[in-house]
Amino acid sequence: MASPTLETFLGPYFVLVYLAVILYGIFCAQAFYYWTTYKDGHGLKLLVFLICVLETAHVAICIHPMYTLLIVDNGSPDKLLRTVWSTAVCCILTFVGLVQSYYIWRIWHIRQSVPIVAFLISAVLTRLAFGYRSNAFTGTGETWEAIFATKHYKIYVNIAFSLNVVVDSLITIALSVFLYQTRMSAQSRNTKNIVLKLMYYSLSAGGLTLLTSVIILVTFNVSDGTITYGGCMQIIAKLYANSMLAVLNARQGIVRGASSTQGYSLELSQLHNQAPATSRPGTAIHVFREAITTSETWSCGNGQPVDEQKVSASDSMGKHEIV
Predict the structure, then answer these.
(1) Residues 106, 161: Cα–Cα separation, whole Å
(2) pLDDT tens-digit series, residues 191-225
(3) Which of 12, 46, 69, 248 can pair with 228 through a Cys bridge, CB separation 3.0 to 4.6 Å?
(4) Beta partners for residue 148, in sequence order
(5) What's the mean pLDDT in 235-245?
């Protein structure tokens, strides 16, 4: 393998890291909006806080290799291909598995299917295992040339990136299918519209990270001898964090849209479909922890509200719950 120049070896990585820093700024804005707007449960708050900490550390660590090679080792071409300890740490700090686990948790709340959730969790853990194994080559190799020449390095990296594509595809498909089934079984047109918005956000978030995962896989195999794929990995880490907060922050807008129309009931958790009472429902919409929550209050023919506490499921009364 011919030794790459400074431009071809570090140029793309340099540009992509700067783009990742821009995405980090967008993430900070989203995180600020989330913390000042929503009062979710402690578990979800802790997850967001952990991702904020890891995001900040990740940005600092991914800048360190550039500083070392371009500033500290400036004027030393012989050190161009040497690895930096922060390169391996940068991969370890990635929180992609946390975000994917969050989406799996949402799938569990929509459809409590043990086989599907267990399979997705197994796929995420397998991807992490291959990812950390390939990262071990980065931590032990003295130069990138030696790492690329390692017998099994490309195999482990390709498997890890391929599994990430598979996991993103499965999560996106599962969320879309289950939300579509929820929409088809909903009684209210308002409910159908809200679930359609949830499907849109799920497809947008999952599709963007899925496309980036495919780009990383292709880049790794095409740009032989450079670390361009490493810059793409910094980008996808920021996309995962931003997509998760975008989904969380979209809840207020969805609720606001639902509250503008009367006769709607929604609670994010599971969907329980039951026949409605004789007249249209009143509207009571609020945010409950990590879910968009509304509760139905149906009215009788005389216009008087029916107390949900006094009406059982056998009386065709209930709630719609959707994650």
Answers:
(1) 23
(2) 777 788 888 888 888 888 889 989 999 988 887 77
(3) 12
(4) none
(5) 90
In the chain the beta strands, taken as DSSP E runs, fall at: 281-282, 285-288, 291-294, 297-298
Write phi, then psi, for 231 (nearest 5 degrees). -65, -35
Summarised one tens digit per residue, pLDDT across range 51-84 is: 999 899 888 888 888 888 778 777 676 676 777 7
- SS3 of 173, please? helix
Torsion, CA 127, CA 160, CA 6, CA 4, rounded to 10: 160
Question: Which structure tokens are listed for 204?
Answer: 């947008």
Name, of 6-20, 137-151, 181-195, the range with top average pLDDT: 6-20
d(CA 130, CA 221): 17
Who's near 5: CB < 8 A, 6+ residues apart? none
Closest CA to 237 of 60, 42, 45: 60
Burial class (CB in 10 A: 0-12, 13-18, 19+), 71: exposed
